[in-house]
């Protein structure tokens, strides 16, 4: 049976602590504006409830992965992440998403882009948004993706199969401003990029503890104003240009750990406070904690103190995220990431056809903001 133009193959999947719609690039329009307009109609934006689409009325559940075979010899597939804004007709490609990344390898096997192994499969992924790479390894007994297992991650009920994601060292500077500390809007911060541009800020510098409930932080209007000013000033300093229409850099408030981890965090994405922490954001935090002289000094339990080697436990509002992280340099030259790896889980929720709402009733999407569109 043939499909009409408004019937799009889609796999809805939880990746880490996010949920998104996964598509083959060939099933979406090649023109970025047409693609974005279609995705707004699929996800139900702009609408606070996203009641007429797949979106879940929160940035963490209004995400899209677009996947295709890669022409890069270092990758098997290309992964373009798109953030569909909930309450505005906007689609952004100006950041990666490490949680949605957890589902890319399984999706590639499900769609026949990668031949599975008999027991485990590794998929090499090029993240189109930034040009960075990752390798995801997950179980495929009998040549089929197995989503069941005993891996548990905070923020997700139950257990699932482990997806081990390894990130090779990036050629980009770990400290994009060239400084261990910068003063922005009168606040000392550390700007770091180990996969996600992130600004580390001691919570007490903004007159909060860093242990507050995310909703309470979101409702603090004075805090919101300070965070906005810091983010807008940090963008050009980090080489990101004008970030007024972007979702990066992320801002992470740091406080001393409470539950045996390395540090307590509250991360803004960029206005909503994350109920946990993004994978790539956590990778940047973990690297920043290790930079001698960073704003994390005096707040953290340093590597090795808990006998776990390179494992750094990042505490967040709903639990923790473990990052395997180590750095090179820092004495004779600028520090750089040596190794970054994380264990996530993913689950296929449904695989089928999505029916977008009518184009006649949909708003016109905002103009592309640049990047790999």
UniProtKB/TrEMBL annotation:
InterPro entries, per database record: OMA_tautomer-like (IPR047687), PrpF-like (IPR007400)
Record bears the keyword Isomerase: yes
GO molecular function annotations of the record: isomerase activity
Keywords, sorted A to Z: Isomerase
Family: Belongs to the PrpF family.
PANTHER family, alphabetized: ACONITATE ISOMERASE-RELATED (PTHR43709), ISOMERASE YBHH-RELATED (PTHR43709:SF3)
UniProt name for this protein: FldA protein
Taxonomic classification: Bacteria, Bacillati, Actinomycetota, Actinomycetes, Kitasatosporales
């Amino acid at each position: 049976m043939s499909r009409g133009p408004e019937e799009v193959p889609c796999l809805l999947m939880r990746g880490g602590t996010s949920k998104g719609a996964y598509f083959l690039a060939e099933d979406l329009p090649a023109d970025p504006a047409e693609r974005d307009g279609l995705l707004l109609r699929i996800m139900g934006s702009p609408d606070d409830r996203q009641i007429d689409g797949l979106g879940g009325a929160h940035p963490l559940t209004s995400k899209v992965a677009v996947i295709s075979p890669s022409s890069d010899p270092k990758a098997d597939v290309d992964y373009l992440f798109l953030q569909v804004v909930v309450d505005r007709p906007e689609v952004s490609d100006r950041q990666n998403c490490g949680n949605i990344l957890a589902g890319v390898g399984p999706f590639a096997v499900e769609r026949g882009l990668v031949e599975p192994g008999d027991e485990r499969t590794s998929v090499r992924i090029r993240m189109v948004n930034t040009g960075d790479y990752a390798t995801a390894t997950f179980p495929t007994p009998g040549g089929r993706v197995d989503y069941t297992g005993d891996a548990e991650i905070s923020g997700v009920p139950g257990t699932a199969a482990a997806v081990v994601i390894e990130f090779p060292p990036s050629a980009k500077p770990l400290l994009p401003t060239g400084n261990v500390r910068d003063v922005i809007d009168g606040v000392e911060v550390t700007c770091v990029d180990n996969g996600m541009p992130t600004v580390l800020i001691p919570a007490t510098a903004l007159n909060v503890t860093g242990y507050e409930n995310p909703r309470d932080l979101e409702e603090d209007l004075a805090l919101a104003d300070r965070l906005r000013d810091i983010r807008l000033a940090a963008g050009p300093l980090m080489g990101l240009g004008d970030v007024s229409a972007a979702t990066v850099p992320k801002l992470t408030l740091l406080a001393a750990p409470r539950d045996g981890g390395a540090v307590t965090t509250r991360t803004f994405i960029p206005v909503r406070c994350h109920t946990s922490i993004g994978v790539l954001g956590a990778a940047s935090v973990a690297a920043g904690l290790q930079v001698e002289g960073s704003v994390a000094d005096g707040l953290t339990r340093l590597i090795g103190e808990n006998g776990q080697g390179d494992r750094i436990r990042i505490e967040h509002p709903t639990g923790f995220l473990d990052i395997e992280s180590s750095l090179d340099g820092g004495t004779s030259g600028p520090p750089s990431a040596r190794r970054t790896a994380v264990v996530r889980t993913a689950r296929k929720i449904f695989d089928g056809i999505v029916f977008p709402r009518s184009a006649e009733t949909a708003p016109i999407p905002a103009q592309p903001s640049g990047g790999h569109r």
